[in-house]
Design goal:
Elements lengths: L2 E5 L7 H4 L4 E2 L3 E4 L5 E5 L12 E4 L9 E10 L8 E6 L7 E8 L2 E6 L2 E8 L6 E8 L5 E7 L2 E8 L12 E5 L6 E9 L14 E8 L2 E2 L4 H5 L11 E2 L6 E6 L12 E7 L6 E8 L6 E2 L3 E3 L5 E7 L1 E2 L4 E2 L2 H5 L2 E7 L1
């Protein structure tokens, strides 16, 4: 397995939506580096400890990873500042365990171990998108960190990559502005086995009913109840109390120029009405049969979010093709 988490920042129409996945949120959103939208951090703060002007995530599937890979697009409005981090890999979210920090100081990329400079890379230009990829291996003496920019190695460090406090692993990712200088983030991935290159996350939205419409909309059609750009709570929704009922939806066609589809990541916003229950994601490709995924418990009376990352076509158990995506229906099945 390679891809374990991804975010293109296109699924959020406002900061409240992003805060359901990330703790805190971007300050705003802007045009993405290739298409769609990106997250913009603008508030001022430093890169240590617990502070408010940032967004952090504990990605599902990452666990406590002593080693791993991450990539993301980054653009900065100003590259002349000093002493400010815009990205960090850490154990938890406190002043402890801030293992690796990226800064751009006086126009150059810098790698820090907590507050200690350990490597310097090439020059950065303002208002230019770069794609940064990082391999980390956290260790107090034989750790490594490789940083690629637009596919070429910019920093290659061997030595102490452990902050000296916290666990000797990474489980939390933090993006930040650090100052009132805006920083733009887009197309982030995490992999447990390799660099994925110039990664893109493309948003698809429900646009028509699928082959099964066994759930009931509270108003209007089923697809109109779930196609919101931002979740509207109980204004529109679909529901069912009948076990084994399946609801499926067709989706907009992806606009991309990539050659490899690494996975399909589905977001579900849901809550229970009366008592705890369960549902499962369902995928159906053109000409195939409905494939039911892993059970998701529904225990909260308030809306929560789950993301289901499907790396391969569950019908064929091989990598997704463009044809698979063009004919893909996605939905859910009510379980007992």
């Amino acid at each position: 397995m390679a891809l374990i988490w991804a975010d293109g920042f296109e699924r959020y129409s406002n900061t409240t939506e992003m805060a359901k996945v990330w703790a805190n949120s971007a300050d705003t959103f802007s045009t993405g580096r290739i298409q769609g939208t990106c997250a913009v951090m603008t508030g001022g703060s430093d890169d240590g400890g617990s502070y408010s002007n940032q967004a952090r995530v504990v990605p599902s599937g990452l666990g406590n990873a002593a080693a791993g890979y991450i990539g993301f697009g980054i653009k900065m409005a100003d590259v002349s500042e000093t002493g400010i981090g815009f990205f960090s890999l850490r154990d938890g979210y406190t002043g402890n365990g801030i293992h690796l920090v990226l800064r751009v100081e006086a126009g150059f990329l810098k790698l820090y171990r907590n507050a200690t400079l350990i490597a310097t890379g090439g020059s950065f230009a303002a208002n230019v998108w770069y794609y940064i990829e990082i391999y980390w291996n956290i260790h107090a003496s034989t750790g490594t960190c490789t940083i690629k920019r637009d596919g070429a190695t910019d920093i290659s460090f061997t030595g102490n990559t452990y902050a000296g406090t916290g666990g000797v692993y990474v489980n939390t990712v933090v993006i930040a502005s650090g100052t009132d200088n805006s920083k733009f983030f887009d197309d982030m991935y995490i992999s447990n086995s390799e660099f994925l290159g110039n990664f893109r996350a493309v948003r698809l939205s429900p646009n028509a009913a699928g082959d099964s419409t066994q759930w009931t909309a509270n108003t209007g059609t089923n697809v109109a109840a779930v196609d919101d750009a931002a979740t509207d709570s109980d204004t529109t929704y679909v529901s069912t109390s009948t076990t084994d009922n399946i609801d499926l939806y067709n989706f907009t066609s992806p606009a991309h120029s990539g050659t490899t589809i690494l996975g399909v990541d589905v977001r579900y916003d849901y809550r229970r009405e009366v008592s705890d229950t369960n549902f499962a994601p369902v995928f159906k490709t053109s000409g195939g049969t409905a494939q039911v995924g892993t059970t998701i418990p529904v225990t909260s009376a308030s809306y929560v979010v789950s993301n289901v990352l499907q790396l391969v076509n569950p019908q064929t158990s091989v990598a997704w093709t463009q044809g698979d995506i063009d004919g893909l229906q996605i939905g859910m099945k009510k379980l007992a």
